[in-house]
Every structure is written in C-alpha cells, then in structure tokens.
Design goal:
The complex is a heterotrimer of chains A (303), B (231) and C (404).
Chain A: H1 2-25, E1 34-39, E2 50-55, E3 63-64, H2 66-83, H3 91-126, H4 128-134, H5 152-162, H6 174-204, H7 219-238, H8 247-290
Antiparallel strand pairs in A: 1-2, 1-3
Chain B: H1 5-23, H2 28-62, H3 68-86, H4 110-128, H5 130-142, H6 147-162, H7 165-170, H8 183-219
Helix pairs in contact in B: 1-2, 2-3, 6-8
Chain C: H1 2-24, E1 36-42, E2 51-56, E3 70-79, E4 86-91, E5 97-100, E6 108-117, E7 126-127, E8 132-133, H2 144-165, H3 176-191, E9 195-198, H4 207-226, E10 230-234, H5 237-253, E11 265-267, H6 272-286, E12 290-295, H7 300-310, E13 314-319, H8 325-331, E14 334-337, H9 339-349, H10 352-384, H11 389-402
Parallel strand pairs in C: 9-10, 9-12, 10-11, 12-13, 13-14
Antiparallel strand pairs in C: 1-2, 2-5, 3-4, 3-6, 6-7, 6-8
Helix pairs in contact in C: 2-10, 3-4, 4-5, 4-9, 6-7, 7-8, 9-10, 10-11
The chains are: A mainly alpha (303), B mainly alpha (231), C alpha/beta (404).
C-alpha cells in the first residue's frame, strides 16, 4: 500500500511539474481561454449592452477570461478523474460522480422540465399573454393565442403526481401513472404490430428461387434469399415458448441460436469501431484544448 | 377501489381510445395530444425525483453516514445548477424589454459554464470509457466457452476485418469468382443474410411481446406497477 | 352577394392576367402553355383535412427540351368566395399530383395550378370548375386488414388465456435465466449483500420498462421472502414512483411489509451516463451479489455488464434493444433475448392467465411464419412463372393489401 502511495505521489508531482514547466517555459503556454467583447444588438443605437464571445488567442481584441480558464482546468480535472476509474474507484472519481449526478439531475429539471416543457407547453397554453410578456415574446406576435383550457388536464394529473410527496394520500399519484401506462400501452401495441410485426414479415417476403434475365436460375441470389427466410423461421422457432426445444423444433431452434449469435457478433463489431472514435474525442480535448500540445484546427497558432 | 381498480379503469379506457385512434381518423390527433401531455407530466415528475434526490442526500448528511461528504457535493452541485438555471443567472436576452426571454443556456451564462466545463466533459469522458470496456468485452469473448460464443466472436472478427482495409488486403489474392470468400464478401453475407434474419426475427418477437404485455396491462391481468390495494 | 363578388373577382383575374403576362413576357411566343384538366377530390381515410389534386402537364413541360421551359408548378388555394388566396407548394417539373393536407374541415376551396417557367414567367392557371370540400371518414378503410391482424393477435392472447385458465395446455418450456433469479436472490442473502435491479433508461411510456417493472415485482417478492436487500436506482421519476408501488406491493404479498424501505428505490438522474457513473460506483463499493438489468438499455449496457462481471455478481439481463444484446450475452450469466423479456413476468408469475398469453404470442409467431412461407412461395412462383399473372396478383394482394 505504501509503495503504491509513493508511486502515485511521484506521478502527481511529475504531472504537476510538467504542467508548471509547460505553462512557464514553452512558447505558447497552456490551458487558457480568451474572449472578446461584442454588442448584444450591434444594430441598435440605444441598446449598448455587451457580452463576451469566445475568441482565439491570435485575435487582436482577445482578452484572457478567468472564469473560462478556470472552467477549462475544472473540465480537465473531471476528465482525468473519470478516466482514473479505469484503475480503480478513488476519491477523485467519487467527487466527479457526485458532481455529475447533482449537476445533471438539476440540468434536466431546469431544461427539459421547466424551460422546455412547463413554460412553453403548459403555462403558455393556459396563460399565453402573461407568459408571452414575461419569457416568450414570440407568443405575442401577431397577437397572443386564446388560452387552451384542455391543458388543465395534464396540470391536474401533474398535481396528483405531486401528491406522492405528501405523507398520506400518495396513492392518488397512481392515477396519472395509470393514464400514462394506458395511453402508451394502446399506442405501442398498434405501433409495434404495424412497424415491426407486419412490416418485417412484408420485407422478408422474397422469392426463394431467383431467375436471371436470361431465364436461368441465379444460384447465388437464390441461396442468399433461402438462407435469409430460413433464418427468420429458425429464429422464430427459438422464441417459441410452448414447445420444448427437442426433435425437429429443437434442431431448428439451435440453428436459430446460431443465427442470433452471428447477428450479435455483427452488432458487436459495429460497436467496437464506433467506440474508439469517442475516446479520440476526449484525448483531443486533453491534448489540444487543455495542454495545447497539438493544434489540429490551427485555432491558436494558425495553420 | 380508488387505489387500484379505478387506476386500472383509467388504463383500460385510455388504452382503448388510443387503439381506436389508429383506425378512426378524427381521433388520430389525440395521439399527439397525449404525447404532449406525457411531456408535461414527465416534467412535473421531475419535482418528485428532485425532491427524492434532495431528501436522500440530506438524510445521509444529517446522519453522517459513510460517504456523507460526497452527498454534500451532490447536493451542492444540484442546488447551484437548479438556482442558476431557474433564475437564468448571467443570461443576456436579445431584447432589453424582455430580460427573461434569453435562452437559458446562452454563451457566458452560469448554466452554460456548468454545462460546458462540468456536465459535458464528465458525460463525454464517461461515454469515452466505453472504448476500454469494449476492449475488455472483446477479450472476454476471446475466451469463447462454447459453440455459440465462438460463433459470436468469429462473426465479429470477420465483420471487423471486412469493414477495414486490412480485410481487403488479406484476401486480395482470392479470385473474383470466389469473392464471397474474401473478408468483405463474408461481411456482406453476414450482414445481408444472418444479421438481417436475426434482426427481423427479434423485431417480430418483440412486437408480439409488446402487444401481449400491452394487452395484459389493458385487461388488468398484470397490475404490479400500480401497487397493492393497501396504502 | 358572395357569388357576385366571386364572379367579379374571377373576371378581374381573367382580365388582368393577360395584361400582366404582356408586361412580363418578352414576346407572345414566350407564353407558357398552362397545365390542364385540374381535378380535385377528397383524400381518402382522413379526418376531413386533405384534398387530392391531379392535372395534366403543361405541353411545354418536356424533359428533352433544354433549357427546360417549365421549371415547376405552383399550387394556389382560395376559399370558394375567392378570399384568403394562398400559395401552397412549389413542385418540380413533371409533377401531376399534389395532396393539400392543410385544409380546414368543412371549408370549400378553389385551387389553381400554374406552370412556372424560367425567369419567373408563369402560365395561365388551370382552375377548378367547382369548389371542393374535404370529407371526414369515421373508419380508415385502408387499415381493415391490419385491424384483422391486430384482432387475430389479441384474440389469440385472450383465447389461449381462457384455454389455459380452464386447465388445458399449461406447459411452457423452461428459460434458464428466469430459473436463476431465485438462486441469485438466495446467494445474495447468503453473502449478506444486496441485489441490484436496474429498470433501464426509458420512462413508463415504453412497454419494455413496464415489462421490466413487472419482473421487478417478482424479483422483489423473492428478495423479500429470502430477506435479501433490493436496491432499485432509477433514471426517471415516474419509474421510481412505479417501482416503489411495485416493490411495496411485493413485500406486502410476501407477508413482510415492515421490511420495505422506500429509500432503496431512488431517483438518481435523468442523464444516461451520470446514472451509469453512479451505478458503477455503487457496484464497486457495495458489491451486490446479483445484478438484474431489465428494460431498455443503450451504450451503457456494456459498462454495467463489464463492471458487474468484474465484481463477480450473478448477472441476469433482458432487453428489447438488439444492439445491446451482444454485450449482455458476453458478460452476463443469463440473457433474456428480445421477446423473452416480455415473457418473463408471465413465467415468473406462474398464473394460468399469464401463461396463456405466452401461448397467444406463440400463435402470433405461427401466424408470422405462415404469412412468410405463403408469401415466399407466391414470390417464388412469380419468379419461376412470370407469365402466370395469378401468382403475381395474389402476391401483390398479400404484400400491398393484407400486409400494407
């Protein structure tokens, strides 16, 4: 354990020294973000408010942004903290995990919940004029719509849901839950039968013997088609619940399992290729945005 | 009655109306309306979830249970994000007459900062970990224990090679008449025949499973999600 | 009064168009021939909000003429009295059909179609002789066969449920993953460690989540009987609500209501990877003896299954996401593939009415297989005997009417 502590201490000190040396000795330094001031409404003669936009360090008007530079280092810390979990669970990962849960839960509440749903889809329907003059001025153009009283239904259902928070009477929250489950049981039942059941059968209807234009049997295409249709039937046999996998059905089901395994293999291969690209994105962040070791887009040092 | 039977009646009636909406054109619009209502309900449900999160961590902190410090970190980040997001801290609206009309995540706002420098790098790195996990999963698959696992691995190996230049190069000596024996050729067969057949059968099965489960829900055969009659 | 106005408006339009044409066109020979024979009729099987238009192409609309004389068509719509004239759509040359899906139910409309030439030269419009009104249908006739299929599938589920309830044909084959649930809960009790149940990433509007919650009901009951702790982190508030109801009901059914602790069923966050980060952290710290993943999963399936595997937990997974199944198959002890997830609850309940639904699902698969075989035989006959039209007609009816 002690030896491990020593190794980690050495690694941290070396990493820290590298950052200090890189920051002070190299031509370009590292890990800074620059901004420039721009007018909020450049066309307006009366509105003189300004805001900050990200700018490359090479921009003449660029100035160092302390909050964004701090943010960059925070982001780098979080990136390394999450990557450290690959070694094992540790205090940095635990901190990152805690922040991730807190920030993301609140972020969803604020965005998907409040500003994207409650305001524009509920309150804007019930009181368009009030909400329009407060946060959604587009609603007032050309004139505010009439209140949509039907939106009272989800409001009432939502309030019932909130009864879950009361010490007694939480059972009333089952009603909106029942509403959601009922509505979507109906929608999904038909949707799946139409889009998956019927359409997949239709797409699988193909000739088992394919003829060429010259009137000969195209052996290769025929084999492919037969293999495909046989595969669908074999996999369906695997999913049969009321028949034991013995005898003919058993053999068919076994072939079905092989088909399924090859299917999974193909999905596996596709996923492997996609995931490598994700890692490349984070590595780029560390080496490009944070450490300034590389500059593939030529945004700091020019091409 | 009100605790279990009445909710089931709601399930049955709303479900039947939605099924009818597929066949009765004037009701078709109701599906969209129901979808919009669901979004509102899910948004209001955030309050229940958020309250639960708040209470759980507060309980852990006040009881000084193991790891309470991390709960404090969670709670702090939750409250800060919530406050700066709801009050649009640092958001500068386009129109000075409507200060609340700016986008909640406009560049430079506090919520933007949290998204840019905390949320996004954390989520992105967690997602990137998949590259390592996929390697360990591949290693596990290498120790194929039975015929099925060997088939999975072989198919994955062929498709991986067949979609890269290496696969084409390795089997470049195969004559054109036997192109099906090259890695790209075998990949085409795996994707066009085996993968298509497997995916279609899975989809047909799932459709039937969804239909049967929905029907059981509508008929009240399986009401476990509604709890018991007791409070 | 309105009709007089309409006539006057029409006359005015007729009088002004040639003048305008003279103004804009360079020479009379440049005039573009208008489309003709514009007809409009109600769009079938809708709520009375669409009208189908058809016309004959402008004689100048010939693809072989370069540069093209006609570069498109413009559709205009007005009310029967000529008011509220709007331009609806710009269509490509060669188009002879258009469906206006923005009609108000009950309103009578007049349509015009103009051939548009290069340099903004328009032809005379092809006009509708009489206003047309969209009609509402109360049944979508194009879905009759689909309705029959729905009735057959649902009828099979209900019919077999009744048959099994009557005590006939109760046998279903064993599914190893479901038999292992009890063993997993038992192991957790022996080891004094919790069971982790993950109901997936989707909300209660997905049937796979409902199926997952139904499985949770049985797992919780087994856990309650064994006195094992069950932890259910959720990433949707509504799922948490449903899971609490379910687990509480399971504990009551197991006769141990006092052992239910709703703190164990908690909301973590809606964000997929934050939820996963919490769970992986939980797994390596608490080391659950059994992990159940039942519902809809995406990329995180790999992280969950690998972490669970690394801590040596018994893992049983079930998902309707075909793309995630390979990772569950590779790293979990048992995997319920696709439809098996939806069958799990019926299996675990052992109730006749639920087992009957499984036989109903089998009947659905038999129907699928029968339709597939019949369709493929017809397609094969059509391929072998291209001159025999009966097979082609039957195939066409099967694929384009029955399986539309």
């Amino acid at each position: 354990m002690k030896r491990e502590t020593i190794i980690w201490t050495v690694l941290f000190v070396a990493g820290g020294l590298f950052l200090v040396v890189r920051g002070t000795q190299s031509d370009h330094g590292l890990g800074r973000q620059y901004v420039k001031q721009v007018r909020v409404n450049p066309q307006s003669a009366t509105d003189l408010r300004v805001k900050f936009k990200e700018a490359p360090p090479t921009d003449r008007q660029a100035q160092l942004s302390i909050p964004r530079t701090v943010g960059l280092w925070v982001a780098a810390f979080f990136t390394l903290a999450i990557l450290s979990f690959l070694y094992r669970d540790n205090i940095f990962y635990k901190i990152a995990e805690s922040v991730m849960v807190g920030v993301s839960a609140a972020w969803y509440m604020v965005t998907a919940g409040f500003w994207e749903a409650i305001i524009p889809k509920l309150l804007a329907n019930l009181a368009p004029e009030t909400i329009g003059s407060w946060a959604l001025p587009d609603l007032l153009k050309p004139k505010p719509p009439d209140p949509k009283l039907l939106s009272l239904v989800p409001l009432v259902l939502g309030i019932m849901l909130l009864c879950r928070l009361l010490p007694r009477g939480g059972w009333i929250g089952r009603w909106p839950l029942a509403f959601i489950v009922g509505v979507f049981a109906g929608i999904r039942m038909i949707g799946f039968l139409e889009a998956d059941f019927v359409s997949q059968i239709r797409s699988s209807i193909i000739p088992l013997v394919v003829m060429t234009d010259a009137g000969r049997v195209n052996l290769w295409a025929s084999l492919r088609n037969t293999g495909l249709v046989f595969g669908v039937l074999a996999c369906l046999a695997y999913f049969f619940f009321s028949v034991e996998h013995r005898g003919l059905v058993g053999r068919l089901a076994r072939v079905g399992v092989w088909y399924l395994m090859i299917t999974f293999g193909a999905s596996f291969a596709f996923t492997v290729m996609g995931r490598i690209a994700l890692l490349a994105g984070r590595i780029t962040f560390l080496f490009d945005d944070w450490l300034w070791l590389i500059d593939p887009a030529g945004k700091r040092w020019g091409p | 009655m009100l605790k279990s039977t009445f909710p089931w009646l709601i399930v049955a009636v709303t479900g039947c109306v939605m099924i009818a909406a597929f066949f009765v054109p004037p009701l078709a619009e109701w599906k969209n309306e129901a979808g919009a209502w669901f979004e509102i309900l899910a948004a209001m449900a955030f309050v229940v979830g958020g309250a639960n999160l708040f209470a759980q961590h507060l309980k852990k902190i006040s009881a000084r249970r193991a790891g309470w410090g991390y709960s404090a970190v969670t709670l702090f980040s939750f409250v800060v994000t919530l406050v700066v997001g709801l009050f649009k801290v640092g958001v500068i609206g386009e129109d000075p007459n409507y200060p609340w009309a700016g986008h909640y995540q406009a560049e430079g706002s506090a919520l933007w900062w949290l998204y840019q420098f905390a949320y996004q790098p954390l989520i992105g790195t967690m997602f990137a970990l998949l590259a390592f996990y996929v390697a360990s999963a591949a290693f596990r698959a290498f120790r194929a224990k039975n015929t099925e696992a060997t088939m999975l691995l072989t198919a994955a190996f062929i498709v991986l090679l067949g979609r890269t230049y290496a696969g084409t190069w390795l089997t470049s000596a195969v004559p054109d008449d036997y192109s099906a024996l090259t890695f790209p050729g075998m990949t085409a067969i795996i994707l066009g025949v085996f993968n298509t057949a497997g995916q279609r059968a899975i989809m047909i099965g799932i459709a039937l499973g969804v239909a049967a489960t929905s029907l059981k829900v509508l008929l009240g055969v399986d009401r476990s999600y509604l709890g018991s009659d007791g409070d | 009064m309105i009709s007089v106005m309409a006539v006057v408006l029409c006359l005015l339009t007729l009088c002004t168009r040639p003048i305008l044409a003279q103004d804009t066109a360079a020479a009379p020979t440049d005039a573009i021939a208008p489309p003709s024979k514009l007809i409009a009729k109600d769009h079938d099987n809708d709520a009375g909000t669409a009208i189908d238009l058809e016309w004959t192409l402008s004689p100048d609309d010939q693809p072989q003429r370069k540069p093209r004389v006609v570069v498109g068509y413009q559709v205009f719509r007005s009310l029967a009295d000529g008011m509220e004239r709007v331009s609806l759509e710009s269509l490509t040359p060669g188009t002879v059909k258009f469906t206006d899906r923005s009609c108000k139910y009950g309103a009578a409309y007049l349509y015009e179609v103009v051939a548009v030439g290069s340099g903004n030269r328009d032809s005379e419009p092809a006009r509708l002789a009489q206003p047309v009104r969209a009609v509402r249908q109360w049944f979508d006739a194009s879905r009759v066969w689909f309705g029959v299929i729905v009735l057959i599938v649902c009828g099979c589920v209900i019919g077999f449920t009744e048959i099994v309830k009557a005590g006939r044909g109760t046998h279903v084959r064993a599914i190893a993953g479901l038999k292992a649930i009890e063993e997993a809960a038992g192991r957790a009790t022996e080891m004094g460690r919790p069971c982790l149940f993950v109901p997936g990433l989707r909300d209660m509007n997905e049937i796979s989540t409902v199926a997952g919650i139904n499985v949770l009901s049985h797992v919780a009951r087994i856990a309650a009987e064994y006195d094992a702790t069950i932890e259910v982190p959720t990433c949707r508030s509504l799922v948490m609500t449903a899971a609490r109801e379910t687990v509480q009901a399971a504990y009551i059914a197991a006769g141990r209501p006092e052992a239910f602790n709703d703190d164990r069923i908690s909301y973590i966050t809606d964000e997929q990877f934050a939820y996963v980060a919490w769970m992986t952290g939980y797994m390596v710290r608490e080391k659950p003896a059994a992990c159940f993943y039942m519902g809809t999963f995406f990329a995180e399936s790999l992280i969950l299954a690998e972490t669970g595997n690394s801590i040596g937990a018994i893992q049983i997974a079930g998902t309707s996401q075909a793309a995630q199944l390979p990772f569950f198959v590779a790293a979990c002890d048992y995997t319920l593939i696709g439809e098996e997830l939806f069958a799990a609850s019926a299996y675990l309940s052992g109730e006749p009415q639920q087992l009957g639904s499984l036989k109903g699902q089998d009947a659905g698969k038999a129907l699928a297989a029968a339709l597939l075989i019949a369709g493929c035989l017809l397609a094969t006959e059509t391929s072998l005997l291209p001159k025999t039209t009966q097979f082609a007609q039957a195939l066409d009816y099967l694929t384009n009417s029955i399986l539309r």
